[in-house]
Design brief:
The structure is a single chain. The protein is elongated. The chain contains 5 helices and 2 strands. Strand 1 and strand 2 form a beta hairpin. Helix 1 crosses helix 2 (37-55), helix 1 crosses helix 4 and helix 2 runs parallel beside helix 4. Strands 1-2 form a two-stranded antiparallel ribbon. It has 103 residues and is mainly alpha-helical. It has one domain (6-102). The longest helix has 19 residues, at 37-55.
């Protein structure tokens, strides 16, 4: 993903970019009608990233993540599907160690 654009990987790691403004010492989402060209460009990375990832998925995988609203959410679900949770990874590791020791 780094080879396409750094903004794409940031969308996966940090979630979608949502422009904000400061109102009375509190940050609130900026209305889309007030977004600058730079805001639009940064926000677009999430859409581009979702498109890239979903284009590479099989039908079964696509249906598992089709309801995701951000590239980060989509990536996190695919990561669990393909790698498992930390508990699953730990159990696999212990099973492989035990299998090796029995060999």
């Amino acid at each position: 993903m780094h080879s396409t654009d750094k903004g794409i990987w940031e969308a996966i790691e940090n979630g979608p970019f949502i422009p904000q403004v400061k109102n009375d010492d509190v940050f609130v989402d900026k209305p889309s009608s007030e977004w600058t060209e730079a805001d639009n460009k940064k926000a677009k990375f999430d859409w581009i990233t979702k498109n890239i990832i979903t284009s590479a998925l099989s039908c079964d995988e696509f249906f598992r993540v089709s309801q995701c609203t951000s590239a980060k959410e989509l990536w996190d679900i695919l990561e669990v599907i393909h790698e498992g949770t930390n508990d699953v990874k730990r159990a696999r590791k212990h099973a492989l160690i035990q299998e090796y020791e029995l060999f």
